[in-house]
Specification:
- The protein contains 1 helix and 11 strands.
- It has one helix spanning 104-110, and strands spanning 3-7, 10-12, 18-25, 33-39, 46-52, 58-60, 68-73, 78-83, 92-99, 117-118, 122-126.
- The strands form 2 sheets. Strands 2, 4, 5, 6, 9, 10 and 11 form a 7-stranded mixed sheet that branches. It has a 4-stranded antiparallel sheet with strand order 1-3-8-7, with no helix packed on it.
- A hairpin with a 5-residue loop joins β5 and β6.
- It is globular.
Length: 128
Amino acid sequence: QLFLVESGGGLVNPGGSLRLSCAASGFTLDYYVIGWFRRAPGKEREGVSCISFNDQSTYYADSVKGRFTISRDVAKNTVYLQMNNLKQPDTAKYYCAADRINTLHDMCVNGPSDFGSWGQGTQVNVSS
């Protein structure tokens, strides 16, 4: 079974930065698509950014383009989300998920399948 653990959230001022980590265990992330999703009270779940672990193809939601960068470390079996120039609307609980699907669009727009794995989430609060 694949297990995912998020870390790196916290409280940050507007304009500040955080780096979230999604560490995987149980299986290597080869042939997986990994996504960062967020959920804030009163809002639907949003696919923030996704990456194909092998070829590093990426997807970004329009709301974070130019500010967030997704990357992966093969040796550490980990995916990162570097978040710069954070804004109050970025406040949410951030979750990572992994699934053996072939398209970034399916992962980030529609979410993982029932066979996908989810982490427990990490809270990001952007406030002055």
